[in-house]
Amino acid sequence: MRRMKAKLIAVGERAPRWVAEGFEEYRKRLSHWLPLELAEIEPGLRGKGRDAARAAQDEGARVLAALPKNAWVVALDGRGRAWSSEQLAQRLEHWRGQGRDLAFLIGGPEGHAPEVRARADEAWSLGPLTLPHMLVRLVVAEQLYRAAALLANHPYHRA
Q1: Which locations, inside or outside the cell, does it occupy (predicted)?
Q2: Cα–Cα distances in angstroms (integers) from residue 86 to residues 12, 93, 138, 144, in the given order
């Protein structure tokens, strides 16, 4: 059986070093359970005289172009479903059973373009807090590692 892979597609470039190092640490830990690739998407142009909706639309087009073929798409969105770590592990087991690769999407400052939300198979909320988008990368990688560790009966997760 082919091993499932995941791709984190995130609007924004050049994460602070501490975020990049943390993400890399969890990506490495996760690699034997769920290989995780990061694709950074160039943000749309914003600022004086610029249309933020147009910027989000441009980002959305680049996000959709980066999707792996036939992937199950999970958009990180505050309006999505919040899962406990145990529930995320159950979702991961469900996704594995589908035999498709995964794509996790992190939008820009305005969130996801309508076309991206329409393409997503489901939406995942990290909770009611507003988090810096760069930090979301690290949280997603850590939570995917925790979910995989739970499924493998690894001692990382101690409730």
Answers
A1: Cytoplasm
A2: 29, 11, 18, 11
Whether the Cβ atoms of residue 76 and residue 11 lie closer than 8 Å to each other: no
Question: Annotated binding residues for S-adenosyl-L-methionine, as ranges?
Answer: 76, 107, 126-131
Q: How far apart are the first and last CA of the chain?
A: 31
Instruction: Say what the pTM is.
Output: 0.92
DSSP letter for each residue of 59-94: HHHHHHHHSPTTPEEEEEEEEEEE--HHHHHHHHHH
Per CATH, which fold does 6-158 belong to?
A: Alpha/beta knot (3.40.1280)
Neighbours of 102 (CB within 10 A): 23
Q: Where do the domains of the chain lie?
A: 6-158
* Known binding positions: 76, 107, 126-131
**Could you tell me if 77 and 112 are in contact, meaning their C-beta atoms sit under 8 angstroms apart?**
yes
